[in-house]
């Protein structure tokens, strides 16, 4: 899987810094290079700038220093064929008055597209929610609501999927199940993913690379390649290799915490 690091560049940041208007230095001198097909997790102590960086990759907020490139171009090129990105937030953020199908369809409607039934079905099928197309969000568990949120991102057929702690609010069992499902989708569809998490275990299970960040000011401390082959499953979680990698990320995080 490490060979994928040689794919074409999807996102590159060089010397990127971000100082908020109130003077908080959220990021300083960040260099990061994300290649096609990678699954990159951002981990680090609270306040190290993970969400800030993810939002900047999404074009939601500019840096105050440095340079960012998307598919070797500026942000203006994002949205064209082969250069689409989608964002999944920690909260499922569904419209409570609309059915699952209507929620999933939203991005297509917002872009003025009609006759979306087939694509809605396809997206629902990817997350295993075909039988819930007419249900309302309140009728679903937290894990199912998050699946709807993921389907709503997938319907746009993104090339780059940005996920900000999507499973942070779920119980361990549901989280492990959704990790497995996400990985299976990633193995099948081969998007590039940038994933923010607080969980070392989750980051190692999912990623081809774990980027460890430190706080005050937010910066990249370590970049750890997770060179375990796909498909990853319960056996990988139980393996010696997995635990070794988790230790490596934990040690790096411990260093980040005392900096
Ligand atoms: N809109 C804003 N205005 C001012 N400061 C902000 C803003 N958003 C974030 N910050 C600050 O920037 C720093 C980085 O925040 P950010 O949310 O990116 O970190 P994080 O690593 O995602 O944190 P967490 O793990 O707690 O979600 C923090 O000190 C935070 O208080």
Automatic annotation (TrEMBL):
InterPro entries: AAA+_ATPase (IPR003593), ABC_transporter-like_ATP-bd (IPR003439), ABC_transporter-like_CS (IPR017871), ABC_transporter_ATP-bind (IPR050166), P-loop_NTPase (IPR027417)
Keywords: ATP-binding, Nucleotide-binding, Transport
SMART domains membership: AAA
Alphabetical list of Pfam families matching this protein: ABC_tran
Superkingdom per UniProt: Bacteria
Keyword Nucleotide-binding recorded: yes
Domain ABC transporter: residue ranges: 11-240
GO terms of molecular function: ATP binding; ATP hydrolysis activity
SUPFAM superfamilies per UniProt: P-loop containing nucleoside triphosphate hydrolases (SSF52540)
Family under the similarity heading: Belongs to the ABC transporter superfamily.
Descriptive protein name: Nitrate/sulfonate/bicarbonate ABC transporter ATP-binding protein
Source organism of this protein record: Acidihalobacter ferrooxydans
